[in-house]
Amino acid sequence: MKAFASWSGGKDCMLALYRFLKDSENTVECLVNMCDTDAVHSRSHGIDKNWIRKQAKQMEIEVIQPVSDFAGYEKVFKHQISILKERNVEAGIFGDIYLKEHKVWIERVCSEMQIQALFPLWGENTEDLLKEFIGEGFKTILVAIRNDVLDNSWLGQVIDTRFLADIKKLDGVDPCAENGEYHSFVFDGPLFSTALDFTTGATITSGNHNFLHLKQND
User: Fold this and answer.
1) 88 and 138 inside one domain
2) Which of 31, 41, 118, 217 has its CA 20 to 30 A from that of 49?
3) Minimal CA–CA distance to 192: which of 68, 66, 14, 29?
């Protein structure tokens, strides 16, 4: 099956992609990373879109970065799917785990575009998913937090077994942050040829979110 991967740069879309590619008959045509109208940042995680391109390069997968505001998101997303259908793409891969409303939206959009929506992680225990992600050798860093849920000490943390133990101690916080408690950026793992090299910079606050700036090492 030939598919595109809906891409944020974080752990869930990475694990979904990884599982999909374990079937040797599957191929990924490209990553689709929706970007803000400022043309600089990925919509979901606030990451500079150049870092998404670096991920794609390490995986040797093409990345497409359509630009959209919130109101025009569905129209732009559908337009991109229509282009990919001309390249014989049959399905989209999504990293959703249990948010039913978002899954329903994806399924409707994909149905209207006559492609299959795939959810490799759907309905699974989020602690188990995080253990799998860590165990497979992926490396990821927290690049955004909801500051009404987590304090700034969580920004920049690497997701590992210690992180999992600590996050489990917090009431009302999902280990995989399915409710948006945090967002992550994958910088190494079994799909990468080499790890991405970076340093962390300033913290930027926007509403109830804090974002960590990543800088390329010289």
Assistant:
1) no
2) 118
3) 14
